[in-house]
Amino acid sequence: MPLETPPLISDNNEELKKVLETLLFITDRPLSLEHLNKVTGAKDAARIAALIAEIRQELEGKGLPVVLMEVAEGFQMATSPAYAPFVRQLFCDRMTMKLSTAALETLSIIAYKQPLTRAEIEDVRGVEVIAALETLLEKRLIKVVGRRETVGRPLMYGTTMDFMRHFGLKSLEDMPPLSTIADENPNSVQ
């Protein structure tokens, strides 16, 4: 059964704002401005951005337990940090993502130096990383982003939108500079 084409959004900002609130509330992943434009049929990205800013301000002004976050290059409603412990308690068996030290080290290397191959990661870590890569791929924190143009054409890895979402990053530029981490930990590798 084909999907119904939604009615075009008129110049009525209040109606468009309700549609945006609905989409941002129901989504299980961040929605970019471009995607919101496409879904709503609105033609003006600035209009969508302004309405999103209004929604965010209204939610904050009312002190609701829900906030509108900009994360992973998009927007999504989420629980206010003050109420997060209760949500964690409710969904504790589904929300916990445990990573070994090896997986965290591998993920950090990929996040800061992407794209890179398994051999390049192993060169930085000094140990084999096959198991860590499999775990990170399974948890969708990394993905194959291409192949290195060299002998054997090895796979190159990079982070995913799920990585940015899990760590609450708008983009990779929001990660702390590697130099500040190295300053705090004299044993770290740059």
Kindly report the oligomeric state of this protein: single chain
- Uncertain residue ranges: none
Give the radius of gyration: 20 Å
CATH class of the largest domain: Mainly Alpha
Q: Quickly give the CATH architecture of the largest domain.
A: Orthogonal Bundle
**Within the largest sheet, what's the order of strands?**
3-5-4
Helix content: 40-55%
Number of distinct beta strands: 5
The CATH homologous superfamily of the largest domain is termed Winged helix-like DNA-binding domain superfamily/Winged helix DNA-binding domain
Percent in strands = 5-15%
Query: H/E order of the elements?
Result: HHHEEHHHEHHEEHH
- Biggest sheet overview: 3 strands, antiparallel
CATH topology descriptor of the largest domain = Arc Repressor Mutant, subunit A
The SS-based structural class is alpha+beta
